[in-house]
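Field log, afternoon session.

UNIT: design team B
ACTIVITY: writing a sequence onto a fixed backbone
BACKBONE:
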């Protein structure tokens, strides 16, 4: 995926069929790729038998963003890396009956640590957390994600 601009980042994810059919859309990406907002729409396509959002949809909406944010932000530091999601853990806190918003944020410390580790070891792993928040501001799920980056030599 070409990650040279926030527009291409958003468009690439928004057209990716598994996310598209899950009703997941990337709605904002900062110019430095350190922040991204994602919406999971409440839809007939992702409701469970209880009428709330299916847990698998909530989990899936958190999956790809952190690794690709790292990759895109590092490319602006002239560091090429491959990126994957290595591990994820989710805590479902409350049923979701509306759209959910995820606000992904990387810090400059995250980026500095990644840059140092990739230059010294060729690899980097880091845990980040994102919350799925409903329209009333309630946290419905908290997801812990382990990004894995490898130098692209």
């Amino acid at each position: 995926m070409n990650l040279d601009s926030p527009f291409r980042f958003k468009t690439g994810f928004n057209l990716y069929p598994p996310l598209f059919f899950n009703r997941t859309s990337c709605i904002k990406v900062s110019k430095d790729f350190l922040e991204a907002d994602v919406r999971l729409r409440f839809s007939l396509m992702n409701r469970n038998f209880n009428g709330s959002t299916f847990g698998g949809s909530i989990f899936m909406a958190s999956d790809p963003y952190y690794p690709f944010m790292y990759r895109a932000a590092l490319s602006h530091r002239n560091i090429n890396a491959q990126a994957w999601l290595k591990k994820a853990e989710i805590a479902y806190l409350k049923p979701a009956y509306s759209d959910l918003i995820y606000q992904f944020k990387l810090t400059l410390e995250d980026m500095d640590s990644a840059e140092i580790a990739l230059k010294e070891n060729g690899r980097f792993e880091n845990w980040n957390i994102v919350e799925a928040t409903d329209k009333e501001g309630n946290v419905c799920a908290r997801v812990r994600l382990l990004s894995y980056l490898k130098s692209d030599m």
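LOG NOTE: The radius of gyration is 16 Å.
NEXT ACTIVITY: expression trials, pending approval
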